[in-house]
Write a structure and sequence with these properties.
Elements: E1 4-10, H1 21-32, E2 37-39, E3 43-44, H2 51-58, E4 63-67, E5 69-72, H3 74-78, E6 85-91, E7 94-98, H4 100-108, E8 115-119, H5 124-133, E9 139-141, H6 151-164
Parallel strand pairs: 1-2, 1-3, 1-4, 4-8, 8-9
Antiparallel strand pairs: 5-6, 6-7
């Protein structure tokens, strides 16, 4: 699978529990092996301006892998609206909510990835909304369950090892 560009983004706002994203990235790199997949340097999403998302999008990844916390929007809930699932990113004063609509608008300005992997608890609704906003995405991976630090690398190990072995995502 040489030539596949994988961009890894991670966000762990200081006011949320720490995530062991470095272990995830180490497992991914080990599974795809040197030279079989072209890696960009892992980027971090910071603040509400999301400069690193722009950088990642400009890199034209085939696969965008996002490791972060997810949950229901506190802003929507407090406004009495049905709360969408959001990804929490770093802001200057702590966690900032990133909606799928906002992420899609950031990615749409560039060559959008073919695959988005959301390594975040209960990210399935976010994955579904992102897929509806970016129709060129062939696959979006999310989960309906909590992801624990010990489980995330196990998923990535299997997922990326199979891709590196030439299996398609649908396998």
């Amino acid at each position: 699978m040489s030539g596949i560009r994988l961009v890894l983004l991670e966000s762990v706002p200081r006011d949320l529990p720490d995530l062991d994203v470095r272990s995830e990235f180490d497992v991914i790199r080990a599974e795809v092996g040197e030279g079989s997949v072209e890696f960009d340097t892992p980027k971090r999403i910071r603040g509400s301006d999301l400069d690193s998302v722009d950088e990642a999008a400009k890199a034209a990844p085939d696969i965008l892998h996002l490791s972060a916390h997810a949950g229901e929007s506190a802003h929507a809930r407090s406004a009495g609206e049905a709360p969408p699932t959001v990804i929490y990113v770093k802001g200057s004063r702590g966690a900032v909510e990133l909606t799928a609509t906002h992420l899609a608008s950031k990615l749409r300005g560039y060559a959008t990835p073919r695959v988005a992997v959301l390594s975040a608890c209960s990210s399935l609704p976010y994955a579904q909304e992102l897929a509806s906003k970016i129709t060129s995405l062939e696959f979006v991976v999310g989960t309906s369950l909590a992801i624990y630090d010990a489980r995330a690398p196990r998923f990535e190990k299997t997922f990326y090892a199979r891709l590196a072995a030439g299996l398609s995502i649908s396998n």
